[in-house]
Amino acid sequence: MLDAMPAGHRHRLLAHLRDQGPRSRAELADVLGMNRGRVLAELDQLVRSNLVREAGFASSRGGRRSTLIELHPDIRFAAVDIGVSSIDLEVTDGSLHPVAAVSEPADVRLGPRRTLHRVNEILAKLQVDGAFEQLTAVGIGLPGPVSFRDGIPVSPPIMPGWDRFPVRDALAREHGCPVVVDNDVNIMAVGERYGGVARSVDDYLFLKLGSGIGCGIFLDGDVYRGTDGCAGDIGHMWVDDRGPVCACGNVGCLESLFGGTALARDATALARSGKSSFLAERLPHRPELTAEDVAAGAVDGDPACLNLVRSGGRRVGSVLAGLVSFLNPSMIVIGGGLAGLGHVLLAEIRSVVYRRSLSLATGNMPIVMSELGPRTGVVGAAVLASDLAFGTQEQE
């Protein structure tokens, strides 16, 4: 039993070891600001639970050398970031250092059973290869609205067959450990704050531009998920009455006008109409055009590709300007697959946000690209898994 210490203090202790490495018992008591006897009793229980262990002696300071405490080396977290067209997975140790990593194409539209079966196959192979004996916890992100409390996706527009599928319970049964489920944008926001450019920033927005568009919201140092877990779903905010029908069924959503799927559609139309010679030359050699083709065209100076990127940047910027006026964040970080569109996109977004927001709100607010890049999601999933194992994230 681990009831001697409140969960919040226990998490601070374990998180300190996770982030700062081995520490003496006295140092941990000082960090927690608690009675040393109580901390010692808690550490004894954590040793028996195989969460921590003694790790030799601290450097001598002239007196009796203190014994160091470290996270148990057998702790393993599985961090899974499922995208519309990919699976990124890492197994980490207790300090969130990668032990093994796998990235491969996938199709989330094949449904939860086939997708999660593939996740389980990957983990089984990593287990055989020695990456872990037993998982301590699993963190997983999904590309759609998620009930964080229940560990299930809810009416995800681009995930047929996933509605209310018991993702958390299915993975927990398979791996015999606790599981935390969140949407992909939230885990990216957590990852960027933990180990990226937004570290130590308490109020910031993480904009994910991929097949879809979403926004992770950090307020007062915590993810804001909203009452039902769908806060930040800005891809389905209205932008243009004359826009195309969105996957959600509405007309003119931001995501229907700009995003990986929309860019592929528009790039193909430009190629077939001959309005982009660059894209027209590429079309016969590919099953379909993608955002990467548009990015290559923009770098090459193709006017039609540049127009697609700039038009999308203006639309995204107008939505972000409204969020800036409403939330007054101290930073905006842009990540996801479309971040590869580069500085043309970033410049357009910055221009609109800075022009359309109050100078007081933007005077000290940088808009920057993600520092972690493709690893942002798995880093965040690992953080959430560790928080669950260490006692602060509870899904009941």
UniProtKB/TrEMBL annotation:
Residue ranges the record marks as coiled coil: none
UniProt keyword annotations, A-Z: Kinase, Membrane, Transferase, Transmembrane, Transmembrane helix
Keyword Transmembrane helix: yes
Segments passing through the bilayer: 319-346
Family of this protein: Belongs to the ROK (NagC/XylR) family.
One example GO MF annotation: kinase activity
Protein name: Sugar kinase
Source species, domain of life: Bacteria
Annotated InterPro entries: ATPase_NBD, ROK, ROK_cs, WH-like_DNA-bd_sf, WH_DNA-bd_sf
